[in-house]
Amino acid sequence: MFMCEAWNKGLTLLAKVALIGWITVALTGAATFAHADEPLPSWNDGSAKKAIVEFVGKVTMEGGADFVPPAERIAVFDNDGTLWAEQPIYFQVQFALDRVKALAPKHPEWKTKQPFKALLEGDKKTFAAGGEKALLEVIAVSHAGMTTEEFEGFVKDWLATAMHPRFQRRYTEVVYQPMIELLAYLRGHGFKTFIVSGGGVEFMRTWVENVYGIPPEQVVGSVGKQEFEVRDGKPVLLKLPAVDFVDDKAGKPIGIQKFIGRRPILAFGNSDGDYQMLQWTAAGSGQRFVGLVHHTDAQREWAYDRDSSVGKLDKALDEAKAKGWTVVDMKHDWKRVFGFEQEKIFGGISK
Amino acid sequence: MFMCEAWNKGLTLLAKVALIGWITVALTGAATFAHADEPLPSWNDGSAKKAIVEFVGKVTMEGGADFVPPAERIAVFDNDGTLWAEQPIYFQVQFALDRVKALAPKHPEWKTKQPFKALLEGDKKTFAAGGEKALLEVIAVSHAGMTTEEFEGFVKDWLATAMHPRFQRRYTEVVYQPMIELLAYLRGHGFKTFIVSGGGVEFMRTWVENVYGIPPEQVVGSVGKQEFEVRDGKPVLLKLPAVDFVDDKAGKPIGIQKFIGRRPILAFGNSDGDYQMLQWTAAGSGQRFVGLVHHTDAQREWAYDRDSSVGKLDKALDEAKAKGWTVVDMKHDWKRVFGFEQEKIFGGISK
Fold first, then answer.
1. Which of A230, A237, A254 is nearest residue B237 as measured by Cβ atoms?
2. Chain A: nearest CA to B129, how far in angstroms?
3. pTM reported for the whole predicted model
4. Would residue A141 be called left, alpha or beta, if left means φ above 0 and alpha means ψ between -120 and 50 degrees?
5. Cβ–Cβ of A237/B260 closer than 8 Å?
6. Chain A residues with CB inside 8 Å of B279's CB?
7. Nearest-angstrom CA–CA distance, B14 and B301
């Protein structure tokens, strides 16, 4: 809807990339992509991968000066733009928009009421003019006025059917393969992996366990207010149209303190919304790893940073350079971005 | 301060109990207390222990009709009155009172200002007349206006020095040995154990890992508002004198949903403040275990329920009887209440 042109362009480019990939593999042998014992197989050898492996080596070496006991190996990851994509719009916002469309037949008044009118008519300009207020109204009807169980059902139904406009894949497939490998690599070294995202905690919890291997109780996110009610003898939790906590910017270290209660030793983000979380992590004593995913790959994904409306990365990028944080250059550091990239050609190599 | 008479009486009784314990052991052999392989050694054989062991057997039997995968074996425990004692007053309230006393020299104005004046003069009646407002003022000065790290230090200092008035033991020793064994028993069977308490989450997180084996990220509790600030280039979290979330009564299932995001299959409480958490747990599908610690032992601990100002157990007790929840009768179901009970006699048996 928002990016038809880019989408077509993207598909064309994707075909080219796939072809290049095929030639590379034909020349070097498919084994390049499938070293089972090699850590982080979708990462190119380079400074980012080196920094990760060295950090993990240091904090897990028993008797070493930098050893950190497993209980304290807390690793936190932003989600949108760090573990899965966030373009052309945050996927959860797309869910909210789709939900309004699905609800529209039951709300004839929306035909004349903003921001719903603009949304249903595809009038992007008017909808955008409504700003944050319009978005909050959409979130109120798509995320509240139902029980937590009903909401979970709506999210699951959406994930099972909705397609990402550019890749024509389920949203849960538009996740970064190198980051999935990193999560598993860390857990394999005794880390406990958490999501700390501005996204809604109940939206994420429906799918992150299957996709990232992160259980619901290790997801920190924005939360709406809820009410406990007994209906016909059965207790339910009602989602109310009111914000309880926004887990973004300065809210991220607060969310970490509130939900986890222990300062992470590793944090990964991709935008200025993650800046305070990275600062908070970096300021702890001993070895710390602070990483940024830098979106530099317009071919395979997107290229954006300082001027982007979604996932703006400006201050945190300067700070990363000043402080020696690890900046992952998506284009150069990642052998592949998504698990589905070579799937069609090499059947099953990505799973 | 509040219970000198009861305390003296308690010590006398304790001496008697210890003597009886010694005679029992002399007759039956110390091995009675130390079957390493036997689960829950501080529990008497009876319906409560039987119900626990049967439940764990059912949900962990692979291939069985009631099998629950480890990831879903969420067990939640209230803290005050369920894992550690809560008499003569909640231990965290005692911490707050002691903190005010420690701060008094820096606050000469408290000599004439209520509720501090009453508190410092030991004028219990006037302080009590101040009700919840007075208590909140005390909590504001004892729990806010400092960084999270400073607060952690104050709690640790207090725990290292303060003594429980009746038992003359550190507060972290006034914990129920049978419940500690239950936590370990559940973890040994793949459960993830959580605290879900009305107490302050940051107060509990300073000590529960050492005492219960429950890491900070598995503690749900009441929370105050916080602010992120950078001081001299160093990020800190400031504790503000404002309540963010009260994890009590209907707040407990909300807290479970917010912090854990998965419905427990086992819940233990001891008061009406736990009622909704128990209801919420019981209402899930499949096998559920719902337990109540019933304080019936004035000799070794306290006996209270329906009329108690602290830990009132009334509605939940009726519901437990109606629904067949497991009511643990402290006097009859627990071989010993505290780890220190036989310590002096059998040197080290409790550790």
1. A254
2. 31
3. 0.88
4. alpha
5. no
6. 230, 235
7. 10
A194 to chain B: which residues are within 8 Å by CB? 217
Cβ–Cβ < 8 Å for B165, B88: yes
Mean per-residue pLDDT, A125-149: 93
Peptide bond connecting A115 to the previous residue in cis, omega within 30 degrees of 0: yes
Report CB contact under 8 Å: A237, B223.
no
CA B41 to chain CA centroid, nearest Å: 20
- The separation between the first and the last C-alpha atoms of chain B, rounded to the nearest angstrom, is 30
Please indicate whether, in this complex, the C-beta atoms of B253 and A283 are within 8 angstroms of each other. no
Residue A36's pLDDT band, with cuts at 50, 70 and 90, is low
Here the contacts of A281-284 (C-beta below 8 Å, separation 24 or greater) are A281/A76, A282/A323, A282/A325, A283/B234, A283/B235
The 10s digit of each residue's pLDDT in B158-173 is: 999 999 999 999 999 9
User: How far B251 CA lies from chain A's nearest CA (Å)?
Assistant: 8
Contacts of A234 in chain B (CB under 8 A): 283
pLDDT of amino acid A132: 86
Which phi and psi angles does A328 have, rounded to 5°?
-85, 115
Residue A15: its pLDDT value, please?
A: 38
The ipTM, to two decimals, is: 0.87
- CA dist A230 and A2 (Å) reads 42
Q: Within a 10 A sphere around the Cβ of A185, how many other Cβ atoms?
A: 17
Using the structure block, give the residue that is written with the tokens 């059912």.
B58
Top pLDDT among A314 and B26 is at: A314
d(CA B100, CA B105): 10
With cut-offs at 50, 70 and 90, classify the pLDDT of residue B27: very low
- What is the C-alpha to C-alpha distance for residues A18 and A153, in angstroms, rounded to an integer? 36
For residue B200, give the nearest of B118, B258, B136 by alpha carbon: B136
CB contact (8 A) between residue B261 and residue A226: no
Q: How many of the other CB atoms lie within 10 Å of CB of A192?
A: 21
Report how far residue A211's alpha carbon sits from residue A177's, in angstroms, rounded to the nearest whole number. Answer: 11
Residues A47-84 have pLDDT tens digits of 999 999 999 999 999 999 999 999 999 999 999 999 99
